[in-house]
Write a structure and sequence with these properties.
Layout (H helix, E strand, L loop, with lengths): L2 H13 L2 E6 L2 H4 L8 H8 L1 H5 L4 H4 L2 H6 L1 H17 L4 H11 L5 E5 L5 H4 L7 E3 L2 E8 L8 E2 L7 E2 L4 E2 L13 E5 L10 H15 L4 E6 L7 H7 L5 E4 L11 E4 L3 H12 L1
Parallel strand pairs: 1-2, 1-9, 2-3, 9-10, 10-11
Antiparallel strand pairs: 4-5, 4-8, 6-7
Length: 271
């Protein structure tokens, strides 16, 4: 990382009146979470699915819940338990400290479904989970527009087969199978009302700012929702990414680093 670029990023943050944090799967890597980079990366995290030749797109699909509910919930149940026991890394707290010094604070826009920003102490009303949340459920069909918390789901998974061995979650309204309120592959049944409300709050927050800065953390190119969002706002962008850090110099600066290392480098300049 070039010191001049780190100092430029620090200057943008110091002058901002609001911090928009945009984050992809790479943000969780420093907390020990897998990022499913490519098929082989996914299969290293889920050897039982590798043996069955089931890739991420197939595992993360409503059709898998319909075809084999215990396999669908084995995959998502394992992730739910993993996210619940994961401790957010120190980079989350660096971001909070920066935001506390800004008049408008921070807002989070993330494609991650893991709930790590809320767990780290970010205000839930200042988080937009564009692909939904594993900590919320909906009816698989769906029979209605209801979304509810997954607090009562305590998944037990046989990791040798990636199958749920505990009770399957069911919709409290119709009794049919429940699923995570997450946008999956080939998903026409995802209920987006909760995410739409979050997006509305983000839009309202942005309208009052004059010196907004975006810091993008670990957002990949395979599903570029987060990258596109930050690039189209017309405000300075700071991109931290260990492999895909390129950014047009007209819109921002980039650090080729992981989230935690990059945040610590900028924080050292800010003091």
């Amino acid at each position: 990382m070039k010191q001049s670029v780190i100092e430029q990023a620090a200057s943008l943050i110091k002058d901002a009146d609001g911090l928009l944090i945009t984050a992809g799967a790479g943000m969780g890597v420093d907390s020990g979470l897998p990022d499913f980079r490519g098929r082989e990366g996914f299969w290293r995290a889920y050897p039982a699915l590798a043996k069955a030749r089931i890739d991420f797109a197939e595992a993360a699909s409503p059709e898998t819940f319909r075809r084999d509910a215990r396999l669908g919930w084995g995959f998502y149940g394992h992730r739910l338990a993993l996210y619940r026991r994961t401790v957010p890394h120190a980079g989350f707290h660096i971001l909070q400290r920066w935001a506390e010094k800004m008049p408008a604070g921070a807002f989070v826009f993330t494609s991650n479904v893991d709930g790590q920003f809320a767990k780290a102490g970010f205000e839930p009303s200042r988080i937009c989970e564009v692909h939904g949340s594993i900590h919320h459920l909906q009816c698989l069909e769906p029979c209605n527009e209801k979304i509810w918390a997954a607090d009562d789901v305590q998944p037990e998974v046989d990791e040798s087969t990636c199958r749920l061995t505990s009770d399957l979650p069911h919709c409290p309204h119709c009794g049919q199978l429940a699923r995570p309120n997450i946008l999956m592959f080939g998903d026409w049944g995802w209920l987006e009302r909760r995410t739409q409300l979050q997006q509305s709050r983000l839009d309202a927050w942005r309208r009052g700012l004059k010196k907004l800065v975006v810091i993008e953390l670990g957002a990949g190119t395979a599903i570029p929702t987060v990258r596109w969002f930050g690039e189209t706002l017309g405000v300075p962008l700071i991109r931290l990414n260990p492999t895909d850090a390129d950014v047009d110099s007209a819109i921002g600066v980039s650090l080729q680093s992981g989230a935690l290392v990059g945040l610590q480098a900028i924080d050292a300049v800010l003091g």
